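User: I'm new to structure prediction. If I give you an amino acid sequence, what do you actually give back? Let's try with this one:
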Amino acid sequence: MNQFFLLFLLLTFVGKQTIAQTIEPLHDFYVAKKNLRKSHQTTQNTILFQGKDMITNTVFTAEYDQIIEKPTTKQQIRIVNKKYDGYVEIMGNKQEIKDNPEANKPIIIFVNQDGIIDSVNASEVILNQLKQTITSRIEKGKPNPHFLHVKNSKKIGDLWTDSSYVSNENNSYFVNYKFERQEGNLHVLSFQGDIKMLNDFEQNGVSFQTNVIGNSSGTIYVEPNTNYIVKSEGTMKLEGRMIVNTDEFPTVIKGTFKDELITK
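Assistant: Good question. You get back a string of structure tokens that encode the predicted 3D arrangement of the chain. For your 264 residues, that looks like this:
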């Protein structure tokens, strides 16, 4: 598990229910269920250094269980990594992504009846990675990002903006949705997101700051009646600068992502 896995972490299940023609707000706990999901991400980070492009490619695939427990006064959702593989390639030099026991420990989320996160429990490694995510931010007081949240009824053709993932003026993710159509037993929505991200972190004694803005776009498939996101896929592009200690470098980050249910 790494930050690319966590950047775009979205969880759901597929059901066989009567298909609702609208998307409705949820005001109840989620149905208890265990799902196996697969996530695949690619990113390309290009940094201009001394007049030359330094390119880092990351490819990452993970399978994980998403376990929704029966609710009491709150509801527990656990994310448990099962296996992953991938690599990081820096200027043609490829290195496999190695297993990290700390990063494999479960993420445990507690939500209230309105789907608002009450607490997040995870290893220090994962908590630090979660702080660097915007598009699927798992944070106390925010809506659960594993489900589609709407404030009022939506019908095919409707457009709206979700600002739930705005943390502060330096870290925000505004998502513009359009309810496109019904496809089989799923709602299909397109989305375009405006991203602003400012992150500070330290690695091996070196301080880093990433300051980028950009956008994402793609499609999500939502189960009627439960608002679980069965599948999401899309692209993103961010541009800005990276500061390493006191040196500043222009940077461009491009990526693709896909997350989907593989068994029920």
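You can read the tokens as a compact description of the fold. Here is one thing that stands out. The two ends are 22 Å apart (CA to CA).
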